[in-house]
Write a structure and sequence with these properties.
This protein folds into two domains: 2-52, no CATH class; 60-338, TIM Barrel (Alpha-Beta Barrel), CATH 3.20.20. By secondary structure, the protein is of the alpha/beta class. The chain has helices spanning 2-6, 8-11, 39-48, 60-81, 99-109, 121-128, 146-155, 169-182, 216-228, 249-268, 301-318, 332-335; strands at 16-18, 24-26, 37-38, 55-58, 87-92, 115-118, 137-140, 161-166, 187-191, 235-239, 275-277, 325-328, 339-342. It is globular and about 85 Å long.
Length: 362
């Protein structure tokens, strides 16, 4: 009955359930047959230790399971589709910069070569302070000054695989200047502005009117300048942000398709691309509607992975281009389920009158 009212089975992602006593139960995703933990008992235990609501409860098993789930879903899709490349995820530090969160993401993601995405100097310092696996990447997005570029370039000397994603021609001039000063060949990416616009709450971050990324004309200028300066061999990554919390799987396929066509053309221009970074987009079904709407999605995690891998394989096979390493930057989909805000209910309002009036029962 409680599940009929609140619909936990629809939006609870198999980690929450209603217990026989009516309380919320937290399930262990690694051991689903184990008894659920009563959330009220956790709150009572916190109260005994002098910790009162509101509290933000973080559940590390949920974070570890989600990282494992995303990686294994991509691995499964790659095997099913016959894709010849592989997958490496990165976590966008801007989504949650707290030390205890980043520490655990790095720890849980190490077996999958899970990396980090940064968009500022402070975020880059956070990434460089962690013991990432030797094959994981640090993706540097955002507007960059000389100090940012200098720090990222120097990090390669101590073993980090740090990729500077170009946002403008100005950045390219700075990178060439810094790399010559430090005598280090950089790893470069280029951010491509896709014309496909997705729906949802963050639709303005997609499409050819979005704030970030380069147009076709700008991309050609970058490639020409890289050739002239003998730096084209440094261009190893294409970054195309599909969007955020994308509700419709068809939009994901279309945006991936367009990104692949840019990738193929740059590859044919002589860029030795190895990575295709498709940015964010993987959504969460907050309402359990399972449809394309502002707070829901019409696809599962497995469907998301298969659609991306299948589209990349088909498009690049058509262009006779080698399959790249696929990168995604799933932020909310990675950590949203691992934390919950718990607060006291101070008062309730009942709109149903207990007093019987008139001839209601006649």
């Amino acid at each position: 009955m409680d599940d009929d009212i609140y619909g936990i089975k629809k939006w609870g992602d198999d980690i929450l359930e209603v217990l026989d006593n009516g309380n919320i139960g937290l399930k262990n995703p690694f051991y689903p047959s184990n008894p659920s933990i009563d959330l009220i008992k956790i709150i009572e235990s916190l109260n005994e230790r002098g910790i009162s609501c509101p509290v933000l409860l973080r559940i590390t098993d949920y974070l570890a399971f989600r990282i494992k789930q995303i990686n294994e879903s991509f691995f499964k899709a790659i095997k099913e589709v016959g894709y010849k490349g592989y997958y490496k995820g990165v976590f966008p530090v801007k989504v949650n910069q707290q030390a205890q969160v980043i520490d655990r993401i790095v720890d849980f993601g190490k077996e999958f070569d899970f990396g980090l995405e940064v968009g500022s100097k402070p975020e880059l310092l956070i990434a460089l302070a962690h013991d990432l696996s030797s094959e994981s990447t640090i993706i540097c997005n955002g507007i960059k000054d000389k100090e940012f570029i200098n720090l990222a370039t120097l990090s390669m000397k101590i073993g980090f695989k740090t990729i500077l994603v170009l946002e403008s021609l100005r950045e390219l001039d700075l990178i060439i200047e810094v790399s010559k000063e430090l005598n280090v060949r950089p790893l470069l990416g280029i951010r491509v502005k896709l014309t496909n616009k997705v729906s949802g709450n963050w639709s303005q971050s997609s499409g050819d009117r979005s704030a970030f990324g380069m147009s076709v004309e700008q991309i050609m200028k970058v490639i020409t300048k890289l050739k002239v300066n003998n730096y084209l061999d440094c261009l190893v990554l294409q970054h195309s942000h599909l969007g955020s919390q994308i509700p419709d799987i068809i939009e994901i396929r279309k945006a991936t398709q367009e990104a692949c066509r840019f990738y193929s053309e740059m590859y044919k221009q002589g860029a030795p691309l190895e990575y295709l970074d498709l940015g964010g987009g993987l959504g969460i079904d907050y309402t359990g509607e399972q449809k394309s709407s502002l707070n829901s999605i019409n696809y599962s995690l497995d469907e998301y992975c298969v659609n991306i891998v299948e589209t990349v394989k088909y498009e690049l096979d058509q262009s006779n281009v080698d399959h790249p390493i696929i990168i995604t930057e799933s932020g909310r989909a990675c950590i949203a389920s691992s934390s919950m805000l718990i607060f006291n209910i101070l008062e309730t309002t009942n709109f149903d009158s207990e007093k019987k009036t008139g001839n209601q029962f006649e």
